[in-house]
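Lab manual, section 2.4: Encoding a predicted structure.

Procedure: take the sequence of the chain (458 residues), apply the prediction step described in section 2.3, and record the output as structure tokens. A sample record is shown.
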Amino acid sequence: MSETSELFIEKSTAKAADLEHRKKINFNIGRYNAVVPKGKEQFVNEHLARERAKNTKWRALETLDHQLEMFEVNFTKRGGKVIWAENAEQAMAEIIKICEVKNCKMLVKSKSMVTEEIHLNDNLEKHGIESIETDLGEYIQQLDGETAYHIVTPAMHKSKEDVAKLFHEKLGTPIDLTPEQLTLKAREILREKYMQAEVGVTGANFIIADVGAIAVTENEGNARLSCAFPKTHIAIVGIEKVIPSLTDLGLFWPLLSTFGTGQKITVYNSIIAGPRQANETDGPEEMYVILLDNGRTKILANPKQRESLYCIRCGACLNACPVYKNIGGFSYGTTYSGPIGSVITPHLQGMDDFKHLSHASSLCGNCTEVCAVKINLHELLLDNRKEAAEEGLTSFSEKAAWKLWKFASLNRSMMNMGSGPLKNRVINGIFKDWTKHRGDLNFSKKTFNELWREQHKD
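Recorded output:
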């Protein structure tokens, strides 16, 4: 068992028994479940919309090289600069280089899972650059020294009382502030940061190939401020976020907002196509888009797992997953948690260290049922297990156990040996490691074969 696997079991065991944590998560997910059906009413045929989105992502990924080159050509026409980063180290090196040229001491950033993936804040701190989270949820997490708990709602595990206590301890505010007052305090602090920052960093929900632009959707306006106030704007985005045409946003924006938060459309939707032009009054003087691979082409090369790159990061699968709702986001120990994280992380960070995540699933299929682009997540989790076994990433005892199980299953006389209670004692005694974190195997008193013979004695 790997160190990451042991840590996962330790964290998930503790969190599953934390009833207060479960209460907070169920409350927040309950609010999400209450509004999503209303958001879905905007679709005349929801399943057709999701199917079309899946087909569009299929087309984009099958022609990914062409789409990205088209984006680069169109984006650079307006003075934008494109940087290709093979891994997190290359991406960080380019960001540090830009910051050093701009003599940047502080930057502001909007919510972005890709920046979490490359550990942007920690790496900037090592170079003496202050990075300020401007999304309210991310700002709360940064104050508390934590990473994002959820793909869409970073502070989902915190109650309003938790946030009030945190602001009291870190910012000196009264401990009984309401959520509205807490938000105004954060706004007061962050507005000053926008004015001081030399560089602004955002992610991107979509890369639009045919017009050479990125699309950013949000509810707070902080992403717009992060890319408009500083003189330099850096957008960091995974290469899989590409969509072929500007017209595709008419489908993807409503899907992302409905499946992400239950809204028909989010409050702020921006299309950013480069730095400020000669006839424009707003925007940065320079704009960079860093196209990050970081293992994505490895997934692209896998015919079955390629489908996971269709993900638009709506977070619906996390909200639907019974495992996530019990063990929480931090137990996974990865940037991307929940079903989608369990699918892609073993391929992004190594099957040997993270194969256990694909086993942290009941394979109930609820994640597939709610996916905005109809990714067969539970099948991909099962395929991950198959890949791990084929690569020999299983212990000797597990291999031996399954060989014994196969031998017994193919041998009718052995299957009929002994009573159910006797089998329970023997098997559960042998497979102690298996049942340590699972329920005991429970055999029926008689096998199907024995019951059949009793019913058909003649």
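Check your result against the sample. Residues 19-40 form the longest helix (22 residues).
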